Amino acid sequence: MAIAQSVLDIAKQEGYRHGLRRISMIRLQVGALAAVVPDSLKFCFEMLSRDTIAAGAVLQIESVPVVARCSACRELFEVENHVFLCPQCDEPALELVSGRELSLTSIEGETGDSNDADENPSGAQHSAGQ
Questions:
Q1: Domain boundaries, the chain
Q2: Tens-place pLDDT, residues 64-91
Q3: Are 76 and 67 in contact (CB under 8 A)?
Q4: d(CA 122, CA 109)
């Protein structure tokens, strides 16, 4: 619930900053180790976003794999089954490159400007890197 509230707060803040009257889509990148269950996040977001500019917005969640760098040979590799051994040299990898992130990468919505309807019937798209 707390993660959904944070996503909503950021989306609303960026939406207002960019003059959106309605947010239609929010794109997130979620690392495989971030302990986020996409269906639960979507459900909580839907409940919290009612009566806001993000009501009905779609959460598009991209899963980011766990990638580590070998401590010995510096090889980058995707971690499978939580085994952090380098496939190249069998040494343990202590450096996590990706897999724990939770990033709001973009927001799409409508500004309500009359030009939006003429140029882009689905509304304006604004990106917000968080």
A1: 2-117
A2: 999 999 989 999 999 998 899 999 999 9
A3: yes
A4: 8
How many other C-beta atoms lie within 10 A of the C-beta of residue 43?
Answer: 14
Assign 114 a pLDDT band (cuts: 50, 70, 90).
Answer: low
Domain 2-117 belongs in CATH node 2.60.120.1440: no
| Tokens standing for residue 115 | 């030009």
Residue with tokens 């980011």, as numbered in its chain? 64
- In sequence order, what DSSP letters do the residues of the chain get, joined into one string? -HHHHHHHHHHHHHHHHTT-SEEEEEEEEEETTS---HHHHHHHHHHHHTTSTTTT-EEEEEEE--EEE-TTT--EEE-BTTB-B-TTT-PBP-EEEESS-EEEEEEEEE---HHHHHH-TT-EEE----
